[in-house]
Design brief:
The chain is built from 13 helices and six strands. By secondary structure, it is an alpha+beta fold.
């Protein structure tokens, strides 16, 4: 193993880019050198080697995270957990993300907003207090300038930037609400996503505004729907997660990113089996 390690170090220091690229590819494939051994190479007193090995480890981590998420999609009916799915998807897209940091942040927000909501006397006031906290104090808002960025569907990026699309902003709100038992529900409108609590409807993308029946009908009319029907029924986590993956599929299709489209198509196929 020592001789193999020395040989790999020598090759990673090679001045021929093709040689280095080939070695990195072989290491990323993991056929002959495991992750623990790769981590040992990070101790080499050579910035070039450290950079190359860090890149290889990142590729391995991403491949494993994407495979893990594919398995999760196949088994989702046994778990049915929107938040868990969101963190796993985030890791599949950006393996360096630490979900625990974001869980802790959501815990803190839930502790702060709980008192505001609990002091409100009516459902209307409760929704208003919740909305003001997330969309005025924390400044979550719709990303109107770059609506089709993939980062709008990756929850840690939404939490960092406070920017997102209707679904991802709604998911953040649902995660906060569930932490203190506030019965907020997701409403999967055609072309939009909103939230509801006891008949009070909330639009996360447009500043957390409270929607009247006319506002909702206007949203539906833009999609050619003239009677709400079942459109205002709460949806289960399964539909939320499926829409989250589908949104990413649409974004990468628009970008003509074939590898990502193929990857996400596999996730959707796995998810649709149950």
């Amino acid at each position: 193993m020592l001789k193999q390690k020395e040989a790999i170090l020598r090759l990673l220091r090679d001045n021929d880019p093709d040689t280095v690229r080939l070695v990195k590819q072989q290491l990323a494939d993991g056929d002959s050198f495991g992750v623990p051994e790769l981590r040992e190479l990070l101790d080499a007193d050579d910035a070039r080697v450290t950079a190359h090995v860090s890149e290889v480890l990142g590729k391995i981590q991403m491949r494993r995270a994407r495979s893990d998420f594919g398995d999760y999609c196949r088994d989702f009916s046994q778990r049915d957990n929107m938040e868990d799915a969101a963190w796993r998807l985030a890791r599949a897209m950006m393996p360096q993300i630490d979900p625990e940091t974001y869980r802790t942040q959501l815990d803190e927000w839930a502790r702060e907003v709980r008192g505001l909501v609990n002091r409100a006397m009516t459902p209307q006031d409760q929704v208003g207090a919740f909305s003001r906290y997330l969309f005025e104090r924390l400044r979550f808002r719709g990303n109107t300038k770059d609506y089709y960025s993939p980062e709008n569907s990756i929850l840690p990026r939404v939490i960092d930037s406070r920017l997102g699309i209707p679904l991802s902003l709604s998911m953040v709100a649902l995660m906060v609400a569930r932490r203190f038992g506030f019965p907020l529900e997701g409403i999967n409108l055609p072309g939009h996503f909103i939230l509801a609590h006891k008949g009070i409807h909330l639009d996360p993308f447009h500043g957390g505004r409270i929607l009247g029946s006319g506002d909702i009908q206007a949203i539906l009319s833009r999609q050619g729907i003239h009677a709400p029907g079942t459109s205002l029924q709460p949806v289960p986590d399964r539909i939320i997660v499926l829409r989250m993956i589908s949104n990413l599929h649409f974004v990468f299709t628009q970008r003509e990113d074939e590898p990502m489209v193929e990857l996400i198509s596999g996730w959707l196929a796995a998810f649709s089996r149950h």
